[in-house]
Task: structure prediction
Amino acid sequence: MSEQHVPSSTPSGSATGGSTAAAHGAGTTRTGTTSGGGSTVRHFLIVFTVAVLAAVGIAWAAGAFRATPRVVLVTSTDDPYWDRVISGAQTAARQFNVELDVFKSKGDEKMQSQTIRDALSRNVAGIGVSPVDATAQADMLRDAAGRATLVTFDSDAPGSNRTAFIGTDNYIAGRQCAEVVREALPDGGELIISVGSVDKENGRLRRQGLIDNLAERPLDAGRAADPLDQPLKAGKYTIVSTLIDQTEPARATQLATEAIQKTPNLKLIVGLFGYSAPALLDALKQTNKLGQIKIVGFDEHEQTLAGIEQGHVAGTLVQDQFNMGYDTVRVLCEVINKVPPVDDRGRTQYLPCRAITSAEDVNIIRYEKQREQQQQPGGGGGGGAAAPAAASAQPSQPAPAAGAPATQPT
Result:
């Protein structure tokens, strides 16, 4: 059976040999096809890799793989004046994709300086600050400008080598305030100036602008300050005294109360800081002079606006606080991200002021504030949801962890 099996396998072997030859032929053909496909695949992989690398390069250039910059906003007091500034800063932080921490100082230069040093120790990319005392803080601020992008707002520190100043032209604002005084007291008379500080540039320049206008002097923001310790004659107005309260509302009320009692012919008090008019209203109540002595204020504290509606406040000069905060963060982001790629060091950006003297003016201000609040996350705005910024508003203290919930200023 084995012999029968062998012959029968021989033809099979021949057939197998033919099949093998055919298989070799077919194999050769298939090998040629596979070789062409390999070139196509390799070409595709090369093109794909180049495209991916190009996309990664573009994304890198756009900052997609960079850590989100962290910036800090430091106010000079904890007054409600800063609410709209902070609102604008938070809006810009969301729009420009930056982590924002907000610290509300209490008017103490040393505490504010320590807050800035703490921020620098955490290697923040940028700092926006309204200096409490630019002269005393000059060295510290210059050091800060050398280690991070520094922008001043509301009150400037020109010698700090800061990148930019965002805020009001305070000398012009003082002159504008004088126009409100003229309308309230057209026949002239005795008045008092109440200001938080003349060490801060904003207080010093507002006072001088006010005096220069009332005295009908030409515009000169560099004019030397008039004396603080004696009455000043300014045209048909007599500035009996300048009360400096060190940015303490309670002290502003106390000083004004004492001055009212010593000045029987007093016609008007001008308050040059945001808390001034409410503090002066308290002084008038305590001396039973409400409605007898007029007040001209600064900014849009709710008590100031209510005083205008009630006829106890002749008017107030309102700054563009929202854009002050917004532009501070915007400029920080532009410089940090080199967009536009120019050196903005030393730039000054002034924002306009406007006088509020009527109930209709008050309605407009309240409407604007409500609209700004609605633009914030959870504010009830009708627009598309904005990505929340990791922003926080708090007293001066070490910054919270990233992503800490925002708190409303008090």
